[in-house]
Backbone:
């Protein structure tokens, strides 16, 4: 396969940029005023504005460096999202509040990056090493974030950090099954300029033994490379330009199962480039974005035959403007204008084009000292599907009180909205052996509501959310009268459940303890049969316990996924499982030695034999050692 040549070209290009940038940085470093405090600018302002009544969870980059690179592994142990994975390195798709894989939106610095071909995001094709934070937003968000933001959305953000000087971070890791990982991340920030470039790579033979059998995970090797290049320019105190770029390449084999050998191969290539202009005035703030998003894949039925494959690709251009106006201290208005034009083609897709234009308005008003409410409205127009009028309402109540010289907080919020998921290019235009698309499909519509409560104590935070949603016109592929598989709007569904999260900390001298727990219960049923959807567990529980003592840090993680149904009539199940990980890290405090951290991790410490998908075992106990250096 040809990915090796593409990776080599990318490596040479990025190394050249790094060398030239390091030379120029060293030449000018003495001109920088490093005494000024760092200034941090976030890339997705929608996460902080007009978000009343919603539940969010933020993961910082320190979490990414202590755990595995793929986004799936980070969210598996740090969120309440369930993941269906075709083995390590294989295709990984989410179920957020019981929804399907195309009903979770993924945004990169405010731009949706869900595939235009199938509407999904493969969470094993996103490396988290080069992002500054990751935000999980629970519940419907189609008004601010577009198609697919039904169960929730995942936000990958880079921040612009002025006045930080020159910083370098290097990472090397080695683990079981010949797994190697490396990263270099460099940044330089002055009063008006910021640049950051990062490159990371991951590869593994992934040939673990299937426990209690004589088989191995044959044909499971994978390698990925991920590069970021970000700029920030302060034109003046009110205007700023940002440029973000990301390239991701992967070459994967699709591993065998307990019952069949495989020879499949798969290549991904994804590039994203974004220009953002932020302008601020006395009463307004505007963010204008121009983006180019490219995605392509090649599927090889036999990885050893380079010239026989199936392919698909899509190119998307995005114009987006978010304009916020503050009428007074109580009332503000945000408008969102969005224009997308996309072209797609492939072995089984007729060359197609889609143009989408949309407008949204969000009005936020502070009703009292403790209560804030928001009204939302959006209309979208497309040349190849009919888009519904979307609307939403949300509010929250937040109060603080003092007891025993400790400030505590109580909050309650609710939100209700109408959301949608547009038919994809595959749904509308597929033309392959045994299957055909349907150009008359309607968007999937979901009505959802949520009530949530938050309690903040001196020692931690407790969050509880109750949710319900009803979906209609769900798209399902079934045989037509000619025996060809064809998508149709035939399903209605109802999802409901609860989410509970608790975080606490306790310090005793040099001893520091932290704990986090999360639990979700989900009922997700096809209303035509009253059956639970396949691969949607009713129960998921996560937990962690951290201990710090001077230079030492110990972290224990626990995951429980309940049983899932593997057939639509709920006649067969795959049992639930519990998995534990532990890692121990050491970072010297002594001056001159505090530039490195070494970490040892043991995953699946009890050697649990479990399957996430039927007939696809996961690894038993395995190890890794990681060295991080920061300058």
Residues:
């Amino acid at each position: 396969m040809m990915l090796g040549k593409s990776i080599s070209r990318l490596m040479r290009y990025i190394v050249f940029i790094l060398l030239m940038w390091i030379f120029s940085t060293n030449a000018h470093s003495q001109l920088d005023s490093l005494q000024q405090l760092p200034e941090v600018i976030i890339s997705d302002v929608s996460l902080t504005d007009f978000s009343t009544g919603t539940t969010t969870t933020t993961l910082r980059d320190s979490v990414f460096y202590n755990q595995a690179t793929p986004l799936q592994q980070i969210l598996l142990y740090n969120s309440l999202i369930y993941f269906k994975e075709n083995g390590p390195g294989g295709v990984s798709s989410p179920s957020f509040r019981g929804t399907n894989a195309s009903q979770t939106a993924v945004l990169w610095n405010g731009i949706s990056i869900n595939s235009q071909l199938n509407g999904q995001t493969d969470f094993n094709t996103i490396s988290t090493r080069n992002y500054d934070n990751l935000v999980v937003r629970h519940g419907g968000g189609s008004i601010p974030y577009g198609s697919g933001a039904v169960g929730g959305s995942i936000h990958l953000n880079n921040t612009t950090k002025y006045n930080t000087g020159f910083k370098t971070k290097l990472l090397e890791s080695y683990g079981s099954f010949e797994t190697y990982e490396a990263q270099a991340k460099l940044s330089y920030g002055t009063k008006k300029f910021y640049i950051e470039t990062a490159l990371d790579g991951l590869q593994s033979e992934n040939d673990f033994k299937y426990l209690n059998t004589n088989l191995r995970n044959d044909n499971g090797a994978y390698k990925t490379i991920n590069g970021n290049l970000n700029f920030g320019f302060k034109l003046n105190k009110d205007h700023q330009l940002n440029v973000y770029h990301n390239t991701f390449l992967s070459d994967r084999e699709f591993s065998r199962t307990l019952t069949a050998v495989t020879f499949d191969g798969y290549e991904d290539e994804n590039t994203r480039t974004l220009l953002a202009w932020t302008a601020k005035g006395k009463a307004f703030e505007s963010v204008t974005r121009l983006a180019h998003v490219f995605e392509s894949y090649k599927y090889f039925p036999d990885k050893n035959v380079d010239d026989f494959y199936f392919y698909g690709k899509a190119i998307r251009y995005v114009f987006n403007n978010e304009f916020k106006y503050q009428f007074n201290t109580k009332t503000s208005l945000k408008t969102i204008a969005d224009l997308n034009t996309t072209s797609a083609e492939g072995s089984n897709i007729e060359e197609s084009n889609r143009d989408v234009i949309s407008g949204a308005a969000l009005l936020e008003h502070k009703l009292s000292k403790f209560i804030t409410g928001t009204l939302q409205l959006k209309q979208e127009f497309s040349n190849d599907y009919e888009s519904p009028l979307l609307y939403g309402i949300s509010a929250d109540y937040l109060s603080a009180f003092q007891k025993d010289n400790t400030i505590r907080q109580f909050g309650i919020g609710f939100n209700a909205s109408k959301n949608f998921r547009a038919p994809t290019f595959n749904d509308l235009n597929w033309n392959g052996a045994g299957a055909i698309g349907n150009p008359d499909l309607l968007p999937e519509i979901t009505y959802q509501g949520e009530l949530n409560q938050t309690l903040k104590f001196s020692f931690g935070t407790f969050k509880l959310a109750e949710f319900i949603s009803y979906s209609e016109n769900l798209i399902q592929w079934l045989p037509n009268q000619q025996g060809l598989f064809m998508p149709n709007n035939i399903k209605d569904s109802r999802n409901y459940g609860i989410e509970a999260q608790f975080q606490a900390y306790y310090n005793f001298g040099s001893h520091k303890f932290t704990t986090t727990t999360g639990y979700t219960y989900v009922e997700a049923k096809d209303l035509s049969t009253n059956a639970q959807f396949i691969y949607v567990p009713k129960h998921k529980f996560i937990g962690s316990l951290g201990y710090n003592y001077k230079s030492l840090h110990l972290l224990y993680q626990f995951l429980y996924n309940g049983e899932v149904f593997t057939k639509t009539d709920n006649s067969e199940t795959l049992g639930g499982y519990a998995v534990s990980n532990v890692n121990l890290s050491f970072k010297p405090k002594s001056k001159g030695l505090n530039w490195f951290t070494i970490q040892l991790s043991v995953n699946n410490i009890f050697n649990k034999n479990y399957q996430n998908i039927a007939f696809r075992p996961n690894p038993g106990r395995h190890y890794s050692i990681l060295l991080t250096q920061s300058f």
Summary: The longest strand covers residues 485-508.
